[in-house]
Amino acid sequence: MSRIEDKIAEQFENLSLGKKKVAHYIQSNLREAALQSAQRIAEKSDVSEATVHRLAQALSYSSFSEMQQDLRRIVIQDQRAVHNFIQSTNRQEHSWLEKHFTQEAENIRQTMMQVDRAQIHEAASLLLQADRVWVAGWRMGLSVTSFFSFVMKYMLGNCELIPQGGVAEYVSYIKPGDVVFACGYPRYCSRTLKLSRLAKEQQAKLIVLTDSGLSPFAKLADLVLLAECKSNGFLDSYTAPLAVVNAIINEISYLEKERVQGNLERMELMLNEFQDSFEWVHKLK
Known about the structure:
Layout: H1 4-11, H2 17-28, H3 30-33, H4 38-45, H5 49-58, H6 64-76, H7 79-90, H8 96-114, H9 117-129, E1 133-136, H10 142-156, E2 159-161, H11 167-171, E3 179-184, H12 190-201, E4 205-210, E5 223-226, H13 239-255, H14 257-273
Parallel strand pairs: 1-2, 1-3, 3-4, 4-5
Helix pairs in contact: 2-4, 2-5, 4-5, 8-13, 9-13, 10-13
InterPro entries: Homeodomain-like_sf, HTH_RpiR, RpiR-like, RpiR-like_SIS, SIS_dom, SIS_dom_sf, WH-like_DNA-bd_sf
GO molecular function: carbohydrate derivative binding; DNA binding; DNA-binding transcription factor activity
GO biological process, one term: carbohydrate derivative metabolic process
């Protein structure tokens, strides 16, 4: 019997917009959805409850209850996750700060389960082989892309962060042999998505950092890296995505130690030349 994740992946493109919203929510929140009612899933997906039931039928389940049983079977396979979830819903209310750090830690744990060494190695290799690296992703995604592009420029010298206001001008220079690194999280910025499509049309390689295999970015990419972004606050968390790009940076340093070291040494010389650092001075009395 196919798992619900497989059924969603197979049927996703044929689903209506409302059903896609529900499918995406379930795929991204398996543990939570396994314990939620159809009404609660509908509220989280911003659709009607009837749409949740229709999705169950579209995925070849006889009812929502059967679909939920399938969800629970998947979740039970991860006993630690179930234990943690039940504990978090039964125990006394945590302080907001403890909840915050608990969620951040869970994002890292879930991301670690989704990203393996081979993917990080592949990403680092593609970036090292690139004639030029273009980084795209704005709004909240800038917390990842601005950091990543700065460090890549510092290490390799051939990386450029595409400014949101200058997409057309920069995209015209993307060519075969280049790599585009795109960060695409809900709400899935249409401008970043269009840039990604154009980069593929221009035969550049595309690495995507996103939240789900159902993300519109995923089907375009040569390499998909998944990182969780759940938050107890009103803004998504980018702690796990930052951990992924840090892993790529570390792998690049390992694979091309001499090249990176040479670039860093030249950069330090220029920083010293421009005295671009803070110096403590003795205050005369």
